[in-house]
Amino acid sequence: MRQFTRAGAGGTMLAADNIVRTGEDQHKEPGDMATAQRIDGKAKAAQMSAEISLQTEALRKEHGLQPGLAVVIIGEDPASQVYVRNKKRTAEACGFYSEQHTLAEDAAEEDVLKLINDLNTDDAIHGILVQLPLPDHLDEQKITQAVVPNKDVDGFHFVNIGKLTSGNTSDAFVPCTPAGCMLMIKDHLGTDLSGLNAVVIGRSNIVGKPMASLLLQANATVTVTHSRTKDLAAVVREGDIVVAAVGRANMVKGDWIKPGAVVIDVGINRVEVTVDGETKSRLTGDVDYAEACESAAAVTPVPGGVGPMTIVMLMANTLRAARFAAGLEA
Ligand code: GUN
Q1: What is the CATH number of the domain that holds 289?
Q2: Fewer CB atoms inside 10 A, N or C side of the chain?
Q3: Which of 127, 155, 183 marks a domain boundary?
Q4: What's the burial of 287, exposed, middle or buried (CB within 10 Å: 0-12/13-18/19+)?
Q5: Dist. CA 34 → ligand 1 center (Å)
Q6: How confident is the model over 147-161, as pLDDT tens digits?
Q7: Residues near 273 by Cβ (< 8 Å), separated by ≥ 6?
Q8: Which CA distances in Å does 20 have to 23, 158, 195, 196, 296?
Q9: 54 falls within a domain
């Protein structure tokens, strides 16, 4: 197996041409390769959450301020309900004030906009999140753009998107999923991705596009692929970093992965599996994890990889929003 020579946070990473082959691995056949490192997003998120709790306590003691997060959920999408419950639970564990607004599936657009407007002007609320997807009759753009940019902890407002794509992230809110992915990538490869090819699979506004901006800002050479990409497997095979965000279970196969790549799996797909004649439902990613482990240097599992990091980045953004509101630095 090939390995990148890594440096710790802030250190200099050796680029792709400096990939080293360990002596031990030179004698192994592909089938014998050691499996990849499992990137433990759950453990990293727990560490970050503990750090955010400490900072929240300090903010309360020194400035009398408690970060406040409002989560709005419209309709009954079961997956969204689980995500929102986890967000609320983590917010409370971090010491935030948190409120959830649950609106009916057929909520009128003007009522949603009125609620957002009230939250925009509520001093106890520093971050607002409207869980997506929305019911079909609601205009997603109108609703996401109604959140004021300084409370837009999802990073979906055009002001925050503009800051990110132009490389001005010092006071921007970056979307939580790509921000979490980027932290895991930098943990493995260092902060400077010069000379590395990054392949993003999926061009959504929530993940693919902001992910590409972040990778570009870290000097990676970025390719964004999508459903119209020709010979996707061949393109992915060029990636030293692969971020899969398509929502198709196990689509990315082991032989798509370049030896030594770092693979980030954003997909959370529910699939039915039969165990001892019994049909069960379980979560799986966009990447065939077992196969990818045969060639990658490191892979995020599903669950336990990107998911917990997304939630903790929401907390980090909310804490930042509260600090900005108090006139403090990030
Ligand atoms: N639905 C899936 N991911 C997200 C996210 O990051 N933010 C919001 N608001 N909705 C989502």
Answers
A1: 3.40.50.720
A2: C
A3: 155
A4: buried
A5: 35
A6: 999 999 999 999 999
A7: 279, 280, 281, 282
A8: 9, 42, 15, 15, 14
A9: no
Going by C-alpha positions, the residue among 83, 325, 188 that lies closest to residue 317 is: 325
Which pLDDT tens digit goes with each residue over 148-196? 999 999 999 999 999 999 999 999 999 999 999 999 999 999 999 999 9
Q: Which amino acid is at 142?
A: K
Is residue 42 in a domain? Answer: no
pTM score: 0.90
Q: Is the shortest distance between the CB of 218 and ligand 1 below 6 Å?
A: no
Side-chain-side CA neighbours of 85 within 13 Å: the count stands at: 7
What is the total count of domains within the chain? Answer: 2
Which residue type occupies 35?
Answer: T
Instruction: Please give the Cα distance from 8 to 302 (Å, whole number).
Output: 25
Same domain, 180 and 150: no
Residue 130, SS3? strand
Q: Are residues 85 and 189 in the same domain?
A: no
